[in-house]
Specification:
alpha/beta; Rossmann fold; 16 helices; nucleotide-binding
């Protein structure tokens, strides 16, 4: 099957040809005809399957062949709304809209947080046909009255499962309440959880289910391996692997924002050009870091799971789990960044002792074992040895020898000139000038146990 056989407009086919695309992916060949028919769609597709083109291509076709509804005012309102969970994914989707629609007379814009809102307001004021947005910034525009959603013909919720995971369900419901009841709805999700099914039941009208394999064929090109290493030796092992395996470019995952910053700084200090990307970075910082990584200016990009959502890099050779995710599905999303477009990829995981249960969960989810590898000098010691080393293994202090009783004027033997504590409760022997004195000695004489 070719794109030509799908019935897309010649202008769209020309844009596809300009980009070097001729054959649709499975999700595209299944979704495009159904969407072009105007039906609601519930699609299960992961990042890397070509799902973005799966909805942008038929969306462009529909809007360019369907007359615009009569609108109030002199500026035409938004005709299609695409909602995504992250800024990076929003930027990627809008880039696809621009690329595939460059020969069409349609306008588009993207709005997300972390950047100045005024240029977005200016773009919306001129009117756009297709708006790509993250939930929070879209609600900001709605509250300020800078966007008109009353004429939306098509709604796309992209990576709906991630939006629910990130707590956007209330924002999504607020947005849905402002849209016209008559519209086409497209919901794309990597998983069909109970929450997604509930959302779909309230949103979609007799939807067509479009589903491709859980992992696309390209995932078979990904090689997995795990290195067991003590937590404190992870960075040394990472640097060793980068050198030993001659890794020129890698996306490295950490669990926390602080951990991503710290690791990127440490790698840079060691002479490895690395940048961090996470939710606390400003949008210009995130955009520049991603651009530098794509252009190979930065060798390593250290990312958290949320920030990495939407990162789409062709022929990325390595994904490294510096820290394993505690949710198995996140491992699937991480490794989906490599092994694309027919190119092989490698997923390396550095596993500390407290992460072994996470690895077991991941293997159960994937229904296969991840091979273990060893790096010379980085083999962690058994738990029993580690516990022994962490314990106080100093030999017990020998008991102090008990001196034999000595008379006045004699040094107590074995005392080194200092006597043991005397008295029924360990009281110190009475000194000169006290009420009592030892038998056979005068109060004025220096006690045998006292030495200047």
């Amino acid at each position: 099957m070719s794109f030509t056989s799908l019935g897309l407009r010649p202008e769209i086919l020309r844009a596809l040809s300009d980009s070097g695309y001729e054959t649709p992916t499975p999700i595209q060949s299944k979704a495009i005809p159904v969407i072009m028919q105007g039906r609601d769609v519930l699609a299960a597709a992961q990042t890397g399957t070509g799902k973005t083109a799966g909805f942008t291509l038929p969306l462009l076709h529909r809007l360019s062949t369907t007359p615009q509804r009569a609108s109030r005012g002199h500026h035409h309102p938004v005709r299609a709304l695409i909602v995504t969970p992250t800024r990076e994914l929003a930027a990627q989707v809008e880039e696809s809209v621009t690329t595939y629609g460059k020969h069409l007379n349609l306008t588009s814009a993207v709005v997300f947080g972390g950047v100045n809102i005024n240029p977005q307001i200016a773009a919306l004021r001129h009117g756009v046909d297709i708006l790509v947005a993250t939930p929070g910034r879209l609600l900001d525009h709605i509250q300020q009255g800078t966007v008109d959603l009353t004429q939306v013909e098509v709604l796309v919720l992209d990576e709906a499962d991630r939006m629910l995971d990130m707590g956007f369900i209330r924002d999504i419901k607020k947005i849905l309440a402002l849209l016209p009841a008559k519209r086409q709805n497209l919901l794309f999700s990597a998983t069909f959880s109970d929450e997604i099914k509930s959302l779909a039941n309230g949103l979609l009208n007799s939807p067509t289910l479009v589903e491709v394999a859980r992992q696309n064929a390209e995932s078979e090109l990904v090689t997995h391996c795990a290195y067991f290493v003590a937590q404190e030796n992870k960075r040394d092992l990472l640097e060793y692997l980068l050198i030993e395996k001659k890794i020129g470019q890698a996306l490295v995952f950490t669990r926390t924002k602080h951990g991503a910053d710290r690791l990127a700084k440490q790698l840079t200090k060691s002479g490895i050009n690395a940048l961090a990307i996470h939710g606390n970075k400003s949008q210009p910082q995130r955009t520049k870091a991603l651009a530098d990584f794509k252009s190979s200016t930065a060798r390593i990009l250290v990312a958290t799971d949320i920030a990495a959502r939407g990162i789409d890099i062709d022929q990325l050779p390595h994904v490294i789990n510096y820290e394993l995710p505690n949710v198995p599905e996140d491992y699937i999303h991480r490794i989906g960044r490599t092994g694309r477009a027919g190119s092989p990829g490698e997923a390396l995981s550095l596993v500390s002792r407290d992460e072994e249960s996470y690895l077991a969960d991941i293997e159960r989810k994937m229904k296969k074992s991840i091979p273990r590898q060893q790096a010379t000098g980085f083999i962690p010691k058994p738990a029993s040895v580690t516990a022994l080393e962490n314990a106080d293994t100093r030999p017990p202090r020998p008991p102090r020898p008990q001196p034999r009783q000595s008379g006045p004027g004699q040094r107590p033997s074995g005392s080194g000139g200092r006597p043991p504590m005397q008295g029924p409760r360990g009281d110190r022997p009475q000194s000169q000038g006290s009420q009592g004195h030892r038998p056979g000695s005068s109060p004025s004489s220096r006690p045998a146990w006292r030495r200047d």
